[in-house]
Amino acid sequence: MEKRKTLTGARIKKNVVNVIVHVILAILSVIWLLPVFWVILTSFRAEKGSYVSTFFPKSYTFDNYIRLFTDTSILNFPQMFLNTLFISIFTCIISVIFVLSVAYSTSRMRFKMRKPYMNFVMVLKLFPGFMSMIAVYYILKAIGLSEGSMIRVALIIVFSAGAGIDFYVAKGFFDTIPKSLDEAAIIDGATRWQIFRKITIPLSKPIIVTTIIKTFMGPWIDFIFAKVICRANAKYYTVSIGLWRMLEKEYIDSWYTCFAAGAVLISIPISILFLKTQKFYAEGMSGAVKG
What we know:
The relative contact order is 0.13. With 291 residues, this protein is mainly alpha-helical. The longest helix is centred in the first third of the chain and has 42 residues, at 2-43. The protein is flat. 73% of the residues lie in helices and 0% in strands.
C-alpha cells in the first residue's frame, strides 16, 4: 500500500512538473511569436505612419506589398532583393567549399603548425569582424572593387573570404566519422579527394545543411559591411540597407508599413531554404548513424 502511494505521489509530482514546464514553454512561445505576428499584421495595415493607437489594423490591404515592387522612384526594393540574393548565393557556395575543406583538412590530416593554427583561429574568433571593416574598405578601394558593379564582387569577397575560420563545428562533426572508413578506402586505392567526395560528404549532410543556412543568412542580414562598401551607391544596396532607409525620418511615415512588408518578404528565402534542406538533414542523420 505504501509503495503504491509512493508511486502515485511520484506520478502526480511528475505531472505537475510537466504542466509547469509546458505552461512556461507556451508563454515563451507567445513572447517569441508576438513580434513576428505584429510585423505580419502591420504589413497588411492600410493606415500609414509608424504611430498607431491600436495593435490590430483598422483596415487591411495588399498595397504595401504592391508598392514595394512598383514604386521604385526612391527605394528600389526589387533591385535590392536581387542584389542580396545574388551575393548570398555566391557567398554560400564559396563559403561552404572553404569551411568543409578546412574542416576536413584539420580533422583528417596531420601537418606542421596544425595545432598552432587552430589555436590562432580560436583567439581570432574572439574579435568581431567589423573591427577590420575600415582596413577592408581601403584594401578594396586600392584594388578597384569599391565602385560600380564591382561592389557586388567586393561584398562576395568580404563575406566569403573569412568563411574558413568557422570550421570548428564542421571539424567536430568530421571527427565523429570513423577513420576506419578512410583507411579502408585508402587500402582500396582511393585518393584523399575521392574519400572526401564519396565517403565524408555523403555522411556529413547535417553539418553541410547547417553551413549552407548559416553562410546564406550572413550576407542576407548583414548591414555594417554592406553599408560601408556600398556607401551612397543606391543601385547596389542590399535589403538590409533598404529596410534601414525606410525607417529614416524622411521616409518613415510613408514607408513604415512597406518596411513591415519587406521584412516579411526577406524571410521567405530563408524559410524556403530551411524547408528544402530538412529532408537532407534527416537523411544525413540516418546515414551517419548507419556509417
